[in-house]
Design a protein that fits this description.
Distance between the termini: 143 Å
Largest sheet: none
Strand content: under 5%
Radius of gyration: 58 Å
Length: 251
């Protein structure tokens, strides 16, 4: 009985173990949880075997007790029958037969007394065994429930660990792209784009400057023509003081 209680005590301690502490010390928490579940299952199987044996022994003891109680009744009935026969033989005047049945009644009463003593000593033991077997059975059901909880907790922790690892990977990926870092690929590409934009703007500015110079040259040529026309008009004496090119042309 003590050995079986030790088995249950060991499993109970395992069920109450600080899983978080175990995981903190584990290099691979998922493997640690799987090993913990395997150990728990193995101990439950060991406990089932021990409890089954205890229950089996209890049933045998209960059967023996029931047989002893039946024997008490049986030998009591035999003693009563032998005593009655002894009285009848004595009444018939057959003392020898009366003495023989009286002796049989004594033997039967002795057997009855022996079985009564056996019942008295066995009954509390069998009752204790039955109580222990019931407690073990309830405890086993509780351990199986703990196993189910442990498996659910394992799945939850593994899912949370994988989610945390995924978040960390995203964080590391984002952190590796630093647009403010001039040594990063993205920054170098941005600089290249800016240089291309600047070069395109320069070409546009050059083109615009060339076009402006052409128009300036055209305006300059127009001014020279105006001067010549006015000079010719002066020489002819027909240029009005505020005349325009059109007036000169008409004159």
């Amino acid at each position: 009985m003590a050995e079986k209680q030790t088995i249950l005590g060991r499993i109970s301690q395992l069920a109450k173990a600080n899983i978080n502490s175990l995981l903190d010390r584990a290099e691979d928490p998922e493997k640690m949880l799987d090993q913990l579940i395997r150990d728990y299952k193995n101990n439950i199987v060991e406990a089932e075997n021990a409890i089954a044996q205890t229950i089996g022994n209890t049933r045998l003891a209960q059967q023996d007790l029931a047989e002893d109680k039946a024997a008490v009744q049986e030998w009591g009935a035999k003693a009563a029958a032998a005593a009655a026969t002894a009285q009848r033989k004595a009444a018939e005047g057959n003392q020898a037969e009366a003495d023989r049945f009286t002796q049989l009644a004594r033997i039967a009463l002795g057997k009855q007394l022996d079985y009564e003593k056996e019942v008295a000593s066995s009954e509390p033991i069998v009752a204790s065994q039955a109580e222990t077997a019931e407690k073990l059975r309830v405890g086993l059901a509780g351990m199986k429930d703990k196993l189910s909880q442990l498996q659910s907790k394992r799945d939850e922790l593994v899912a949370r660990a994988k989610a945390a690892q995924a978040q960390q990977k995203v964080h590391d990926a984002v952190g590796s792209i630093n647009v403010l870092d001039p040594t990063s690929e993205l920054s170098r590409w941005e600089d290249s784009v800016r240089q291309q934009e600047a070069q395109a703007a320069g070409h546009a500015e050059i083109a615009a400057s060339s076009l402006e110079s052409q128009f300036a040259e055209l305006e300059s040529a127009g001014d020279k023509t105006e001067i010549e026309l006015r000079l010719e008009a002066l020489q002819r004496g027909v240029l009005p003081p505020s005349g325009t090119q059109d007036q000169i042309t008409q004159g």
